[in-house]
């Protein structure tokens, strides 16, 4: 707590504003909107040019980070654990997506859609406004971001997203033989990567659960992640089938004999 107060005493609001401005707006992709095309709160924060010339003290050096709501929290806060797991899941799905695209698999667009929703979930998690210790919260300082299904004003998540996954699960399950044994991760590069994504998805569920249980995050996020894990398992089997790989199943081994 003392560390947090020291951070705030060092003109935290000014530092965070400059840091965010540097990291988000010091470079611009060809598709990024120009300042002239933005109005009102959409315009990025302005920052002094001298910021580029010298190192700005970073609150991250003290083990803190800022949420989209402008709350300063330690990096091991449950919000960042949940966000980190969703980010990692999105990355592994991206890895699987690229391999699936190279192999001509049919579900690549579904994976793209999932990545978009995972980013929305991360935004919703960062918008969580559960009570934090006195002295560790500041006024929101981040600029407006592009409109998202999960706006910065709320953390709602539509039921239709989980329903969409259920439709995809039914669509692809029809071409698969029934599961009679535990499936061992593998079955080709794409399938193995999807199994990793599945494991990370289960972790994301565990990290999101406390936020949902305490009423700080829409329960539909948890439903979606649970359904997503099922979809990833189905698609991992589809990937093995599409690549002509043999699906390995778990066969219990007898206990080794004890020497006399």
TrEMBL record:
Domain Cobalamin adenosyltransferase-like: start-end pairs: 58-239
> A GO molecular function for this record?
corrinoid adenosyltransferase activity
Alphabetically ordered keywords of this record: ATP-binding, Nucleotide-binding, Transferase
Where are the residues of the annotated region Disordered?
25-51
Checking InterPro entries in the record gives:
CblAdoTrfase-like (IPR016030), CblAdoTrfase-like_sf (IPR036451), PduO-typ (IPR029499)
Q: Does the keyword Transferase apply?
A: yes
Q: Where is the composition biased (Low complexity)?
A: 25-37
Asked if the keyword Iron-sulfur belongs to this entry, the reply reads: no
- Subunit structure as annotated in this protein's UniProt entry: Homotrimer.
The record ties this protein, via NCBIfam families, to: PduO_Nterm
Tell me the function of this protein.
Converts cob(I)alamin to adenosylcobalamin (adenosylcob(III)alamin), a coenzyme for methylmalonyl-CoA mutase, therefore participates in the final step of the vitamin B12 conversion. Generates adenosylcobalamin (AdoCbl) and directly delivers the cofactor to MUT in a transfer that is stimulated by ATP-binding to MMAB and gated by MMAA.
Name the protein family.
Belongs to the Cob(I)alamin adenosyltransferase family.
PANTHER family assigned: CORRINOID ADENOSYLTRANSFERASE, CORRINOID ADENOSYLTRANSFERASE MMAB
The protein, known as: Corrinoid adenosyltransferase MMAB
Q: Which organism is it from?
A: Megalurothrips usitatus (bean blossom thrips)
